[in-house]
Write a structure and sequence with these properties.
The chain is of the alpha+beta class. The chain folds into three domains: 65 residues; 147 residues, Immunoglobulin-like, CATH 2.60.40; 98 residues, Cytochrome Bc1 Complex, Chain D, domain 2, CATH 1.10.760. The protein contains eleven helices and ten strands. The strands form two sheets. Strands 3-2-1-5-8 form a five-stranded mixed β-sheet, with no helix packed on it. It has a five-stranded mixed β-sheet with strand order 4-10-9-6-7. It starts with 6 loop residues before the first helix and ends with a helix.
Length: 394
C-alpha cells in the first residue's frame, strides 16, 4: 500500500514541472529565433531541395517534382481502388467473393502500364544524367582532394592555373562545437579558404582522395561526386548567379566527418581576376627555398600560423588535445628528436586518426614542428630546418 503525497508537495512538484516546461519552451523558441535560412545553404525546417543556382540543379529539381507527382498519382489511384473495393464489396453489405482465376486483359494492363511509366521517367532522366557527365570544354578545371578532414584545391587549367590551397573548417566553429554552444546561420559551414570561381563559366571539378572515400557535394549547384583514393572522378557546374553556396562531405569518412564543409564563392569575372592576381602574389611570397637556413624565432612565428590553420582544430590552440586527440604539450614525441615527429607528419599515424600532411611545403612542416617544440611548456630550444624534411621525403 502506497502513501499518497501531501497536497502541498504535489502542488510544488506541479509548479516545478511547469517551470521546467516553460524553460524548455523558451529555450526552443530562442533557438528557433537564433537560426535563419542560409542563402546558398540549408534553411530552417527545410523539406524541399535547395533553390537551384545552376542549369543542372534546375533540371534535377524539375525531375524531382515530375517523379514525385507521378508517384502521388499512382499512390492515390492504387489505394483509391483498393479501399473503394474493400468498402463497397464487403461481406457485411451482402457481397459475395467472386470466383475467377485470371484475366488476360488485366495481366497485360498491369505489365504494360508500369513499363511505359518507367521508360518515360528514364527517358526524362537520361538527358540530365548525360549532361551531368559531360565535362568537356570546361573553362576552368579544379582538382578537389579529400583529406581527413579538409579539402585541398588545385587549379589545374584555365584562369588561375597553379593556385592551390587547403580549405578547413574555421577554428571558431570547432570551438563552438566543442563548447556545445553553436551560433550563426552558417554553423559548421564556415571555412578559412573558400573555393572561388567566376559566374557563368563551366567549372570542371576533378575529385580524388588521400586517405578514405569522401564526396564533394554542393546541393544548390547540383553537384555530388565521390572522391576515392587512387581513382579520379569528375563533375562540373556553371553557377547562374554570384553568391556563397555551401555543401559538405557526403560520405561517412571518419570521426571528423561533420567538420568537413565545402564553401563555393561565385564572383563576377572582374572580381575573380582580382582574386587570382592576389592569390598568385600570395603563393609567390610563400614559395620558400627549402635550402634556406632559418633562425628559431622566424620558424616559430611561421609555424604558429601553420598550426592555427591546420592543427589547432584537433589539437586545440593550447596543445592540450581533446578526447582521443593526443596532447602536444608535454608529448614525449614532440620533446624528443625530430625524426619520429617528421615521419608522423609525412605519413600519418594511428590508422589515419592522425592524417598525413605531405601536402604542406617543406618549410611549413619544418615550421610547425619547430613551433610545437617551442610552445606552451615545450621550451626545448630545438628547431627543424626545411632541408631535413626534404631528406625525409626521399
Amino acid at each position: 500500500m502506497t502513501t499518497p503525497l501531501p497536497a502541498a508537495l504535489r502542488q510544488r512538484g506541479t509548479r516545478i514541472g511547469l517551470a521546467l516546461a516553460g524553460l524548455l519552451a523558451s529555450g526552443w523558441a530562442q533557438a528557433q529565433r537564433a537560426v535563419n535560412d542560409l542563402p546558398g545553404g540549408p534553411a530552417v525546417n527545410q523539406l524541399d531541395l535547395h533553390p537551384p543556382m545552376s542549369g543542372i540543379a534546375q533540371q534535377q529539381q524539375s525531375l524531382h517534382y515530375i517523379v514525385l507527382w507521378i508517384c502521388i498519382v499512382i499512390f492515390v489511384a492504387v489505394f483509391g481502388v483498393m479501399f473503394y473495393s474493400i468498402l463497397k464489396h464487403r461481406k457485411s453489405v451482402g457481397h459475395k467473393a467472386a470466383n475467377f482465376h485470371e484475366s488476360v486483359a488485366v495481366e497485360i494492363a498491369w505489365t504494360i502500364i508500369p513499363f511505359v511509366i518507367v521508360i518515360g521517367m528514364g527517358a526524362m532522366a537520361t538527358r540530365t544524367v548525360v549532361a551531368m557527365k559531360d565535362t568537356s570544354n570546361a573553362d576552368i578545371t579544379i582538382k578537389a582532394t579529400g583529406y581527413q578532414w579538409k579539402w585541398g584545391y588545385d587549379y589545374l587549367k584555365g584562369e588561375g592555373e597553379g593556385i592551390n590551397f587547403l580549405s578547413t573548417l574555421d577554428l571558431s566553429h570547432r570551438v563552438m562545437s566543442d563548447s556545445g554552444k553553436p551560433s550563426g546561420d552558417n554553423y559548421l559551414l564556415k571555412v578559412d579558404n573558400p573555393l572561388v570561381v567566376p559566374v557563368n563559366q563551366k567549372i570542371r571539378i576533378v575529385t580524388t582522395a588521400n586517405d578514405v572515400i569522401h564526396a564533394w557535394m554542393v546541393p544548390s549547384l547540383g553537384v555530388k561526386q565521390d572522391a576515392i583514393p587512387g581513382f579520379v572522378r569528375d563533375t562540373w557546374f556553371r553557377a547562374d548567379k554570384t553568391g556563397d553556396f555551401y555543401g559538405q562531405c557526403a560520405e561517412l569518412c571518419g570521426k571528423e566527418h561533420a567538420y568537413m564543409p565545402i564553401h563555393v564563392k561565385v564572383v563576377s569575372q572582374a572580381d575573380y581576376a582580382t582574386w587570382v592576381a592576389g592569390k598568385q602574389k600570395e603563393l609567390a611570397a610563400l614559395a620558400d627555398d627549402p635550402a634556406k637556413v632559418w633562425a628559431l624565432p622566424e620558424l616559430v612565428a611561421r609555424g604558429e600560423k601553420v598550426y592555427a590553420a591546420n592543427c589547432a582544430a584537433c589539437h586545440r590552440p593550447d596543445g592540450k588535445g581533446a578526447g582521443p586527440i593526443k596532447p602536444l604539450d608535454g608529448s614525449a614525441i614532440v620533446l624528443g628528436e625530430p625524426a619520429a615527429q617528421i615521419q608522423i607528419l609525412l605519413n600519418g599515424a594511428a590508422n589515419g586518426a592522425m592524417p598525413a600532411w605531405k601536402q604542406l611545403s617543406d618549410t611549413e612542416i619544418a615550421a610547425v614542428l619547430t613551433y610545437t617544440k617551442n610552445s606552451w611548456s615545450n621550451q626545448t630550444g630545438k628547431l627543424v630546418q626545411p632541408a631535413e624534411i626534404v631528406a625525409a621525403r626521399k
